Amino acid sequence: MALPVLNLPLLFLSLLLTTFPVVQGASWCVARSDASYKALQTALDYACGSGADCTPLQSDGLCFLPNTIQAHASYAFNSYYQRRAMAPGSCDFAGTATVAKTDPSLFFITLFSFIF
User: Which residues cross the membrane (predicted)?
Assistant: First the structure.
């Protein structure tokens, strides 16, 4: 039975809300959605040059896709943040990053499993 088109957004929203569990004490450093491209590129370069493991972001790397500044910056920011044991101040990058309490990778898993 096919779902009516109007109910699909509600189904998708309910899947998102129930799929993102909050893990006690866990946090991730992600790029802010309102950060400019230039600011994110500068912060990404800083993170990769200051201890973040950016090897997976190379064109042949496991985390190259999605190939967006937002995704690459989030990966690098979180690598830097985790390598510094989530120390206060290690997730700022000149205001281009923020701490998330839900695992941001779950969004892509949920989105792709819903679509396919």
Answer: none
Cis peptide leading into residue 9 (ω within 30°): no
pLDDT tens for 56-71 read 999 999 999 999 999 9
pTM above 0.90, yes or no: no
